[in-house]
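Bumping with the actual sequence this time:
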Amino acid sequence: SNQMDVLEDHDKERAFMSALLSYVPVTVAEFFLERVEQNLPSDDLLTEQLDAILMFADMSGFTRLTETLQKKGQEGAELLKTLLNQVFGGLISKIVNKYNGDIVKFAGDAILVMWRVENKFDFRDLSINACACALEIVDDMRKFGGYRIDDKVLPLGLHIGLSSGEVQALHVGGLRNRREVIVVGEPLVHMGYAEKLSKTGDVVISPSLLKCLSDAKVVKLNHRTTRLSSISRELSGLSRLSSKSDKHKLQQLQQQKISQQQFQQTQQQQQ
C-alpha cells in the first residue's frame, strides 16, 4: 500500500511538471523529473554544474513604447497585450521551436536563453546554432521596424550578447511552494559585457564563441568582444540536445510544450 502511494505521488508530480512545461524552463522540468524518478528530495538547495551557450536578448525602444501606451489607459493596455503577443510570441516560438533554446528568464523586456552542452563534440554546432538564432531574431525585429501609435511609428529592435562556458544552475527556494532557478558563473559576466557593447541590431559575442565559428563576418570591438554580422550555418549534426535526458525524452518534453502552446493559441483565437 505504501509503495502504491509513493508511485501515485510520483505520477502526480510528473503530471504536474508536464503541465508546467509551458511556464518553466526545460532545464528545471527535466532536472526535477529526474529527481522524481530517482526518489530524491526536491525541496532542498540543489545545484548542477554544466557547460552552456548563453544568449541575452534585450529589446530596444520598448520602455518608451510602454510609457506612450500607458497614457492611453485601457486602450493602451489592450494595444500592449496585442504587441506582446505579436512580438514576444514570435521571438519565443523561433527560439524554442526552431533553435531548441531554453528560455531561462524574462528580465523586463529582455530574455535569457541557454543551450546546454553535454558532449564536447556538440559545442561547435550548438555555438553556430545559438549565433544563427541571434542573427535571425535580430533580423526579424529589423523587418518589424516599429509600432504605429496615432501618427507616430515608435521603433523597436533587439541587441544581443552571447557567451559560453561552465555555469552553475542553482535551484533555490522551497518555502510556500515557491522555487527559483538562478544561473551563475563567469560566462554570464562575459555575456553581460557583450550585450552592453551592442547597439540596436547588433549581435556581440565572446572569444569562446568566436573560435567555434568558421567563415564568420565579424568586426573586432576589443580584445574581449566581437560584433557578428553573418556565419556559415552548416552543422555537422548534433548528437545530443540535453545533458540530463536522452534525446528522445527531451524531444517528448519539447513536443508536449509545443502542443500546449498550440492548444493555448487555439483557445485564445476561439475567445
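The C-alpha cells above came from a reply further down the thread. The helical segments are 2-19, 26-37, 62-70, 74-98, 123-144, 186-197, 207-210, 247-270.
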